[in-house]
Write a structure and sequence with these properties.
Structural class of chain A: mainly beta
Number of helices of chain A: 0
Largest interface: A-B, 23 and 26 residues
Helix content of chain A: under 10%
Oligomer: heterodimer
Strand content of chain B: over 45%
Radius of gyration of chain A: 13 Å
Order of helices and strands of chain B: EEEEEEEEEE
Shape of chain B: globular
Largest sheet of chain A: 6 strands, mixed
Distance between the termini of chain B: 33 Å
Distance between the termini of chain A: 38 Å
Number of strands of chain A: 11
Number of helices of chain B: 0
Strand content of chain A: over 45%
Helix content of chain B: under 10%
Number of strands of chain B: 10
Shape of chain A: globular
Order of helices and strands of chain A: EEEEEEEEEEE
Chain lengths: 113, 112
Amino acid sequence: DQQVKQNSPSLSVQEGRISILNCDYTNSMFDYFLWYKKYPAEGPTFLISISSIKDKNEDGRFTVFLNKSAKHLSLHIVPSQPGDSAVYFCAAEASGGSYIPTFGRGTSLIVHP
Amino acid sequence: GAGVSQSPSNKVTEKGKDVELRCDPISGHTALYWYRQSLGQGLEFLIYFQGNSAPDKSGLPSDRFSAERTGGSVSTLTIQRTQQEDSAVYLCASSLREGAGTFGSGTRLTVV
């Protein structure tokens, strides 16, 4: 049973518009969440994270929102750029547990000019 | 080095053969993780090393899989008697703090 779910396998967005990638989790022990970006033939690269004590974290064009009651987080990219085209993985971990991040299956984002 | 280095980058092996995959973490990183990504799947946790503690092997899919980390640095993932379902990209990550860190580029393993 997947504890971290990214229900949209792909997303297509026009350059300049907002990209919204969603992630749901089931384990209430998760208290730290991360987004990774992966280009083909490369390893995932850490993008942004959020602790459960916050509901928003912003870094430049990237903002992550956390809704603990809904066990839902989202990554907003605005404005989207063609170079953002990649697979985005959501990950979650429990600081009181094993610290082993659990990953979703990823969402492939395509930003077209 | 500046990043996590994995070798080989690609490996094609015959079914039934043993393979060894290597990971050189970032110097000083105490935590090291192995994941694998099968086609169309997410990152599946395999094994976790943290300092001198006993590794967490809870993600290893079968007893054909094993890993060691020598001197708290380099790690080797060994798959014995490879099967076609072992074909995947094997990713290693290391971190200073416990949690997801810096990934290598992975080893693409193909079992034919």
